[in-house]
Every structure is written in C-alpha cells, then in structure tokens.
Specification:
Helix content is about 5%, strand content about 55%. By secondary structure, the chain is mainly beta. The protein has one domain: Beta Barrel (OB fold (Dihydrolipoamide Acetyltransferase, E2P)), CATH 2.40.50.
C-alpha cells in the first residue's frame, strides 16, 4: 500500500492576534492568519508582488503556546498539513475553507536585531526551545 504526503511549510507575518477557544470536551484550539509574500520581475524589469493568506489552526498545547506568544505582525514559521473544512450555514448554503493544521511553530525575529532569539515549538513540546538566529537556518 502506498502512502501519501500532506506537508506544508510557510514563513509569513500574522495578520491578526490569535484567537483561542475550547471544544466542548475542553481541548484548546487557536486560529490565526498568516500572510506570505513573493515578488518577481518581468522580462521588462517591472516588479510585481503577491500576497497569499493562510488560515492556521493549532490544537492542544501548541494552541495554548500560539495564543500566549504570538501577536499581529509577528513573523512566524508554520509547519503542518492542509485540511479542507466543510460546513453548511443556517440558510443551507454550503461552504468550504482550506486551512493549515499546524504541528510545529517557530517564532522568527527581526534578524537585524541581535537581541531577538527564535523559539521553536512543536505539537508535542511543553515549552519553546530557544534557537540562535542564524542566516543559514532556512535554505530558501
């Protein structure tokens, strides 16, 4: 039997402060949006920029850490999987939304500020791990 792969990695800035709520069973869930931007030049030398917005969902301990440490405008690395959520509203209209279900989060600081450390948290960790900011940390 062959296995599939559903893995997403993004680096971007939070578009809003994280919002945390609890499921009826008491499990924490936090949602927030992340904007990623890319820029390119045409053959004529004209510069273009495009921003893509992603909805992110974190569960359990990672949800609590995201709510505690993240805020609007902050740069963040998110790793997880894509999930399509479908629902029907009160009028019977069907909706769907693609979101990233996070299993790892790393807070990224301004690399020009040497006093800022990066913190990495995965779904299984209890607290952020401190990592020194290093230009070679991401190959892209």
């Amino acid at each position: 039997m062959s296995r599939g792969l559903n893995k997403v990695m993004i680096i971007g800035h939070l578009g809003r402060d994280p919002e945390m709520r609890y499921t009826p069973s008491g499990r924490p869930v936090t949602t927030f949006s992340v904007a990623t931007s890319r820029s390119w030049s045409t053959v004529d030398g004209e510069r273009h920029q495009e921003t893509e917005w992603f909805n992110v969902v974190a569960w359990g301990n990672l949800a609590e850490i995201c709510k505690q440490y993240l805020s609007k405008g902050q740069q963040v690395y998110i790793e997880g999987r894509l999930q399509t959520r479908k629902w029907e509203d009160k009028e019977g209209n069907k909706h769907s939304s693609v979101e990233i279900v996070a299993n790892e989060m790393m807070m990224l600081g301004d690399r020009r500020d040497n006093s800022t450390n990066n913190h990495s948290v995965s779904e299984d960790n209890d607290a952020p791990e401190t990592q020194a900011a290093d230009e070679d940390e991401f190959p892209f």
